[in-house]
Fold these 2 entries.
Entry 1:
Amino acid sequence: MQITIKLFAFLQDQLGPTVTVELDSPVTVEKIFSAVAKQSLAIKAVLENSRLAVNQEFVSENELEITPTDEIAIIPPVSGG
Amino acid sequence: MQITIKLFAFLQDQLGPTVTVELDSPVTVEKIFSAVAKQSLAIKAVLENSRLAVNQEFVSENELEITPTDEIAIIPPVSGG
Amino acid sequence: MHYIRISDDPINIAPLYRKLVDPRYGGIDIFVGTVRQWTGDIETRKITYSAYQSMAERQLAKIAAPIEAQGGRVVIAHRTGTLNLTDIAVFVGVAAVHRAEAFKWCQQVIDTLKHEVPIWKKEYDTDKVRWGN
Amino acid sequence: MHYIRISDDPINIAPLYRKLVDPRYGGIDIFVGTVRQWTGDIETRKITYSAYQSMAERQLAKIAAPIEAQGGRVVIAHRTGTLNLTDIAVFVGVAAVHRAEAFKWCQQVIDTLKHEVPIWKKEYDTDKVRWGN
């Protein structure tokens, strides 16, 4: 299935506000990160320290049940406050 | 010697802003509290929890070297903040 | 009820303080984070904050909820956009019946915010541009 | 340099906050103590604060000195006179390079103030008048 992923901060500077990737079911966090990693070598280190959010919540499990309306985002290390 | 003592809060409500007492040398904290205690029965409990200040510093020693220009005060339990 | 705002508008202390005032409370603790000039040898000129705004507001509401459930009140404002030296990046205010809770909860909010809330800074330092710390 | 004020004038947050702002600092913690209505079953109507003003200012300066010596900035204001519900009795603000110090020092100031500074409250409660707590 086709998944559009929101990007922020350094990742957004490198790749723009979203990337769309094609993934086999079942979709996993690992597959998402691998697919995004292929887009640019420059983002490797940041991606290793990033987390996945689905519908604005961090996910901890690897296997995901994604529907087309779900909001997927990669959250690089935060630095607010 | 004659000593004038500043009073505050409940003690001031009971006895006014100062009391003057006559004490033998050497002047001690105990003598000051005893002399003030004689002024009113109502202040006994508060006086037992009060501290003495000389020139705006709390004193811990009992024996005092007081000169006529020193500022003596009895500090009841504080409750600012 | 908590108040949470992530916005490009400058943060003003006084109106946020007023949201914390209530005869129920005796202690209010406020943390204000500002743009600092020096971090060791690195000199900062300005900082741009960006946020995943909807998620950030949702995460902040989750941080505020248990404090409000215990009777406190939480007010959080975070800037986005470009900030200069001494500008306020974040305001966290917590009102409580007693001061010990106000301090504890305020610290809890800002500590959790710094780890769990999707907001990012891009620092324009005199030597180069840095993401994060 | 620290700022300390004990006065009958109402306490306003904004001008006191401005005294804490400096590009050296990144974290400001402010504690505000207000007049609370209920303490258990006791309902407070108003509070009158009085002070041994010269000694209170001297004691507050002694509390601020070691914090300022370590690079922080301390701003303290305490009301005297009659305060109604929600009025500000005390403002303690500490600015520091990092937030952990700001929180620690601010708490240290208010804790010490409550034990060592000659200021007293006379509470006008609905049942009777009480000195202190």
Entry 2:
Amino acid sequence: MLIFEISKKDRCNPSQAPLEKAAVEKIPDRFRRKQRPLLPQVSELQALRHYTRLSQQNFSIDTHFYPLGSCTMKYNPRACNRLAMLPQLLGRHPYAPETTGQGFLACMYELQEMLKDITGMAAVSLTPLAGAQGEFTGVAMIRAYHDSRGDTGRSEILVPDAAHGTNPATATMCGYSVREIPTGREGDVDLEELKAAVGPKTAGLMLTNPSTLGVFERHITEIARVVHDAGGLLYYDGANLNAILGKVKPGDMGFDVIHMNLHKTFSTPHGGGGPGAGPVGANETLQPFLPVPVVTHEGGEYRWLTEISLPHSIGRLSAFMGNAGVLLRAYVYARLLGRDGMQRVAEFSTLNANYMAAQLAKAGFQLAYPDRRASHEFIITLKQLKDETGVIAMDVAKRLLDKGYHAPTTYFPLLVPECFLIEPTESEDKDVLDGFIDAMTEIAAEAKDSPEQVKGAPHTTPVRRLDDVRAARQLDLRWRPRD
Amino acid sequence: MLIFEISKKDRCNPSQAPLEKAAVEKIPDRFRRKQRPLLPQVSELQALRHYTRLSQQNFSIDTHFYPLGSCTMKYNPRACNRLAMLPQLLGRHPYAPETTGQGFLACMYELQEMLKDITGMAAVSLTPLAGAQGEFTGVAMIRAYHDSRGDTGRSEILVPDAAHGTNPATATMCGYSVREIPTGREGDVDLEELKAAVGPKTAGLMLTNPSTLGVFERHITEIARVVHDAGGLLYYDGANLNAILGKVKPGDMGFDVIHMNLHKTFSTPHGGGGPGAGPVGANETLQPFLPVPVVTHEGGEYRWLTEISLPHSIGRLSAFMGNAGVLLRAYVYARLLGRDGMQRVAEFSTLNANYMAAQLAKAGFQLAYPDRRASHEFIITLKQLKDETGVIAMDVAKRLLDKGYHAPTTYFPLLVPECFLIEPTESEDKDVLDGFIDAMTEIAAEAKDSPEQVKGAPHTTPVRRLDDVRAARQLDLRWRPRD
Amino acid sequence: MPFIPHTEADIKAMLEAVGVDSIETLFDEIPAELRCGELTNVPPRMNEFEVTRLMLERAEQDGYYINFIGAGAYEHHIPAAVWEITTRGEFYSAYTPYQAEASQGTLQVLYEFQTMMASLTGMDVANASLYDGASALAEAVLMAVRTHRKARRVLIPTTVHPVYRQVTHSIVTNQDIELLSVPFSKQGGHTVLDALKSHEGGDLAALVIPQPNFFGVLEDVDELTNWAHRHNALVIAVVNPVALALLAPPGEWGDAGADIVVGEGQPLGAPLSSGGPYFGFMCCRQAHVRQMPGRIVGRTVDATGNPGFTLTLQAREQHIRRSKATSNICTNQGLLVTAATIHMALLGPEGLERVAAQCHANTLALLEKLTAMSGVERVFDRPVFHEAVLRLSSPANDVLRALEGQGILGGYNLTQYYPELGEAILVCATETRGHEDIDKYTFHMERIMSKRRLDPPCAVKANPKD
Amino acid sequence: MPFIPHTEADIKAMLEAVGVDSIETLFDEIPAELRCGELTNVPPRMNEFEVTRLMLERAEQDGYYINFIGAGAYEHHIPAAVWEITTRGEFYSAYTPYQAEASQGTLQVLYEFQTMMASLTGMDVANASLYDGASALAEAVLMAVRTHRKARRVLIPTTVHPVYRQVTHSIVTNQDIELLSVPFSKQGGHTVLDALKSHEGGDLAALVIPQPNFFGVLEDVDELTNWAHRHNALVIAVVNPVALALLAPPGEWGDAGADIVVGEGQPLGAPLSSGGPYFGFMCCRQAHVRQMPGRIVGRTVDATGNPGFTLTLQAREQHIRRSKATSNICTNQGLLVTAATIHMALLGPEGLERVAAQCHANTLALLEKLTAMSGVERVFDRPVFHEAVLRLSSPANDVLRALEGQGILGGYNLTQYYPELGEAILVCATETRGHEDIDKYTFHMERIMSKRRLDPPCAVKANPKD
Ligand SMILES: Cc1ncc(COP(=O)(O)O)c(C=O)c1O
Ligand SMILES: Cc1ncc(COP(=O)(O)O)c(C=O)c1O
């Protein structure tokens, strides 16, 4: 039932609006709307009940194990939510003077300082609104750097074939063409191919380490040298920072610029799609190009640095300062974790991934990189299962839903066939991991004994398997009243 | 799965407590605990997930129609919750001086004033913690009144046979014996029986009007006269105030003392069992006996009146001032409703009840009092269904759960066989009522065609029909570890 | 219409179905002369924004204070998760779980709560809550008298919270129960066996034992328990649940343990909130469970043999037993119990113990600093948990007011209930009152006291009775 | 360990299963020389209580102000229910709904949102959000250029929010797109056809039309739309969603309506929160849907024929189309969209219209009072929605600071971006700024301005550039 279907004409919810409609005769008729928009006309209870019941149709971290690779679905502490929603913090206008926001700005400044340390970078800007915007920022900074040196012939961004889709898409948005670098047999970038690819056209390389294949790029120092030697710069996709928090810093690996996904590593909620926050860190070379605003602390006062004091900045990426409420949540999380807690995140997310990989391998599943350590995530390929039973990765994913587990990331990275990218995160207990492994084992057995059971999954969710093809062919993107 | 079953030794949740254990050597050993209590050892995520999932196993107003007669399960506005939980209000100590609580006390004072007006009483004390404690208060005041006049021979409280169980139980707690007055054929108190029962032993009469039979006691003025003439006083059980809010005042009906259930009429949440609030109002005769504290407003300041200024008070009923947070929610609700909104509550709860009664009657169900107007609730008796099909009221109640409706109150009042006491409340829409009526009609058909379907209900809830007899016989009131 | 979803068309259709032409007609059985006019003292409605603003202003007006008052309600840190889950609609807006199959969430929470409380107190069983600590004591007295059958006299030491004693009196005296008080030791602030002597021989239903007592002092619970049992009286323990993380559970007091345990549940996750809602808890021995007031949840099985939870032993309750019920209680404090259960689950045994230990340590630190000043002294010499009585050389009321001016609530003024102690206050520093707060308190106290030493307000004020 | 559930026993068992003897070993593929030491600039951890206290103190420090600033972010009343539901764990802690069957809650909310936005803007379809209004404008420019195929020049009037223009510039210029500005009428504060003349003939991909514009002024949207279409350019509307409850929807502008509509969603239920998270929305004609960036939800059926919801048209997106995607956006602002959907459902068409009308009325009331003073005047003579530009006879900065001292944020200082307007500020009174607040503003403004009239601070300060 859609909210529109419980709506009725003439119903109105008068506690939520001014008690009467004020006069608007000063707005000439020609500017005015003639017909009311199709918004629901429901009581407060009807709305509340409708959306409460809808919420119950979601899987979420708060209700289910959610080992979605590359997404770092870990516990989102409730304190972060509560403290970011204190009335004074919620009520502050983005253009309120800095004098009225010293408490808020102190949090932002301290967050910048912590992120600098964690990434090994010289400076951080908190402003990008998500990972992809952070990527855009980083690559735009690389471009601004080359441009600032009059080095305008560089037109290519190198991207490993295992990269997340946002990497090539970002390169395009920054006006670059994309050159893919293949992955070697063991999951590292193919160094020879890289060497062959770099050259005077190379603006930079986008890399995440550990990679989306769930392994640490062992030749990172050499890669950095190769790219730098060719005059290119290195961009670090920080989506996998959880794996190395407090263990190794991207700055030390040779990266020039990095984005972080605070909605992953710093546990701010994913909110069914967002918001996130994608702060960017830069080394001294790229620091002048950071987007504004950035917080500074001088003479006991916090204030914003803008394009006026940072004339080389690539500029602004959003109307205000960034996703402040998300940044506040990340700040609270960082204070709760502290220095040691950061390291532990890397340790236990890695332990969990390696444990699951080992147990799944024992249970007969094929690891994509059996000779490698898993980072905080790892890949299994279900190709053999498919060959033997006709059951594909998507079927197994759907069947997991029946067993009360959210599916891992499927069919990404693209180079591994029938793949599951599994990221348990550090906040899950061994019993939960064991339960998931049992469920996988059961499903593999079902695939042999009763494949229809698996192919017909899910059976217990609010809807059965949805017809995606029809969704795309017979577009139905909004509700319309019958009459 | 119980929380204890996901608990593991040595697990601890260190964000929630001091980071280290302080020294306690000043507490001699003989006072100390030797073994740790059996509290769960779980992570924050484990606790959160466990209780979030448990919550989803409840029916509630926020998720289901909940026409539980006598309970007034109407919408609990979220604003009431939010505003009662502002940090400063939550943080105030009950013994903090009045000077630090003028904002809070202003709300309490204004609530008292509104409740006086609504009930037609001379004074109100907010302190009773629920309806039953309000009843105790009222009857204890009646007793204090008689005692204050040296009139100590009165040992009986009259209670109609339809009364809620708390009425007779309260009379007992106040040291009275209970005398039941039968109900007449049309649902009113049998006046002749009442006249025969009153006398020098009569301390008072406890009555709710409209009664728990869902009808308005038409002879209330005469009843009051009869009891008063015999030297007794009248106590009004305010559980059904929703039906008459702003339409008729208990004080005008002749009642001397009244409690209100703010968790019913004033829409504070039931919370799966409580808390409630049972303020008491009294006319001038009983006012001196009201429990303390009471808020007063003098010289621009709000302060508490205690036993010192109210020497005839029956005293205190709780350690502090009452369920302040509940009272704040009721205050916010009253301000949102306002004067006119109060009347509308009575009007639309009554309209909903009469509509459902009419439609159910048309659908073939028997009304207990077909010739009467329904108040905000009404009764159907399923005796005929039982006689015809063997399906009893409890079976129908359980089957309603399968259809997504909470069951009405069953088997109360006791004098109507196989009864459903149905209270839709004003906050439900006609479509919801129609859906419920359809469900009832379907169930009646099922009772004839496939009675096992109904007797075996519920089928779709997290557990099937529970064995209450076993629960009482093989008491299992706490979990114990296996080993 | 706020909170009413009816449209004009609905109203028309509904009236037609009922067969009346106006809603007003539905009230025609109410005698016309009783009908009231407008509710003149109820103001016209406000919209949600207006009420929000009003409440924000009132909350601002009340402000924040650094609180060193305990006296039965304690400021503890409540994990954010507690109320974020507790106020989920499914818990918040459900009724008492009468339809068990549709209430497994609430019922399982209550069963877990009962398990936790039974273990914390060392008793066999717990109920699902009573109103608050004070009324729980009253119910325990009634229960003890019912259980004892013979005696109707109950001993309540004056070291029990004075308001608890008042409330118990208000509630039980109508049933011809006699409450006898027991004086405390001037030196220790505790109940000594000598003081009980005079009651030996008389028929006693129960002895109430607070631990810690109202003064924060630890009572000799083993001796007192044994004394009571020797004299055929039940033991009613009144305890602080946080203290129990450190202190011996009543189930282990003396040779046989307490018989009934009650207390205020507020320290387990309920915000101070000017006094409520909190909740009372009650535990007892299995043998007495049928005399217990309040809801009790039991585990059972469903039609297919799966475990499930349901309200049980309802034959004790008013809706079944009516005038013969163990109590008239119906609505209890369920939501607070939900909060407490989550609170305890989040803290765990280690966390609760750390909280208790830190409360103790902070209070000792505060006491040390305050009593180092001249004009401030400890009144009792016995060990305390997280509260203690201090005697001041200046009028308690004036000192507390001066502290309030500095944003500090310095303690609970004992002069009303215990005038014999002189200008005494009860101070408490929970785990939320760390060094910073203690230093602030000490700093201002020092200033206030020394000002008063050097420059007493005026001659009259020197009279402690003023 | 905060947020880590592992026990010693678990760790041991897990290491054994992996076949290593320490967790450290699992990091042995990281070159040793890269390993870092302690994070010295990350402070040691605090417990939740300590952080709570810190944050409460910081929030207190920032305090409350009566806010008359708009300029792209507006203070509206948000019903309490909105965030109480939005922060339910099931919405709050879910990912992007990749597994549709396990995400019907989020997906249906998005479908409902798309329906509401399409109707509010009068367009065919809406996406499921972009980051914010400014970046949505940049995406609209990119989309217009992709759709147009031939031209890469886009006209952006200077009446568009200056930061939106900056952001668009930062984002699109790397793709060789030219942004051309259009000056505004000095008298009306709007974009006049005359100013567009110079661009006729050139190849234009799109014209951006703000309504209301940054000055709060209503643009002649019909004429502008027709002009653009006549010159074969697409129309990108930038609108305020609350204003749309009163104003003609872009779908109905001119003869053919706008082609792409974007805007800042913040006024629909997002708290001001120092600037975010908010959300951008985008709507377009059905014909252009395959060029839209961002997630889109479609309704379809499941294996049994029942309706259900799923992400659709994913072939536009980066995870499928990679370097050829319509945008690199992945994570969007989903939770804010959930809030907006609930917000709109609670207000309904009547409620949103009342909010819009009250904003308008309050702003007019404010303008009337302020311009009655000498030294305060309206700059533009055209009708406004809920913002307007005022020119002051004293330096804007000084006046705003003086107001701030009285707890009032008096408006947005325009001198940085529009020095040509003199000492001008942009003021806004939403429905939350009623008489009381307006009177307070007026009172203090009167005092400040008259003091400055009588007693200008000092000679140098009279220079408006200072
Ligand atoms: C490896 C990788 N890079 C980049 C991103 C993009 O981040 P966001 O979704 O915050 O834009 C993601 C997120 O899915 C990712 O997994
Ligand atoms: C008619 C009636 N009277 C009294 C009560 C007792 O109120 P409470 O549950 O608040 O103690 C109730 C509640 O169930 C009731 O319905």
